[in-house]
Amino acid sequence: MAKREITIVIGTLNRPAVAAKLLKQLSADPRSKNWEILAFDQSDHKNYQLLKHQFKPIATNFNLFHLDKPNTCRYLNLGWQKAAASIVLYLDDDVELTETTIDAHLNAYQNPKILGVAGRVINDGETGHNSATGRIKQFGAVIDKNFSSTKKTFVDFPYGCNMSFRKNILQETGGFDEKLAPPVYAYNEVDLGYRINKKYPHSIVFEPEALVYHHRYPSGGTRHYSPAEIAKNSHFNYGYFIAKNFCWWQNILFWLRRLPYQLIREPGQTINILKGFINGKFSIFNS
User: Fold this and answer.
1) pTM for this structure?
2) What is the phi/psi pair of residue 181, to 5°?
3) CA-CA distance, 193 to 69, in Å (whole number)?
4) Contact predicate 282/274, CB 8 Å
5) What whole-number distance in Å separates Cα of residue 93 and Cα of residue 225?
6) Is residue 1 part of a domain?
7) Could you tell me which residues come within 8 angstroms of residue 165 by beta carbon, excluding any fewer than 6 positions away?
8) Are residues 211 and 241 in the same domain?
9) Does residue 84 register a pLDDT over 70?
10) Which of 20, 85, 131, 172 has CB atoms 3.0–4.6 Å from 4's, for a disulfide?
11) 104-135: per-residue pLDDT in tens?
12) Are 217 and 15 in contact, with CB atoms under 8 Å apart?
């Protein structure tokens, strides 16, 4: 088998037509013979069969796997564990690639110090702005998630729908934390990026040329769950991330900075952050 220059990992949940559209875009690229594509379907049986039917004629270097239960961190880890290439690119099923997306990811790794690449993401309705990108500030009290910028810079974490890593750094760190709470497994990329940067500062670069358009389809994927459930899960995992990655005095400063915002802007989510925080501290003590 030919050596693969990159492994592309795609996760999908109950939207086979959306996933098939991205897979066909990849297979239409003449360079795809040098890529390995691993798709992880987490759908119910009906949607899985629909995707399986569309998947067959695409290409021999595509592999389809099925998970009985949706689990984002699990499929992300299976992706790098099964990858044949030394570079692993993660894409959401509802992104649209540009001509430069994959080459820009690959080119960044010509610098041996680069361990991860955060690609540029323009969500539907965004025009792009050059504010802070992928930053964790004040011990996690402020997290800048803007990835529509055109300025190349080092970041603390990538955007999960368009990110890549060297396989060896995923092996070294253990990859994505499967203790994050379901159903959405929010903050998985924030947690991983922080852990990598803590050991290897300035090793994840934001590459504007690695651009995707993120269409964020209204159904399937995490939209499978209610907005209330998504918000609750996200804030719980935020608290878990803070407890896990910062020491006690940093946690005090975090709460001093974050609590006023929570009580004014998101009072109903304060308890979910606290629950995740307590869970994170217990996880540390029991590990």
Assistant:
1) 0.94
2) -80, 140
3) 25
4) no
5) 17
6) no
7) 80, 87, 88, 115, 116, 117, 196
8) no
9) yes
10) 85
11) 999 999 999 999 999 999 999 887 777 889 99
12) yes
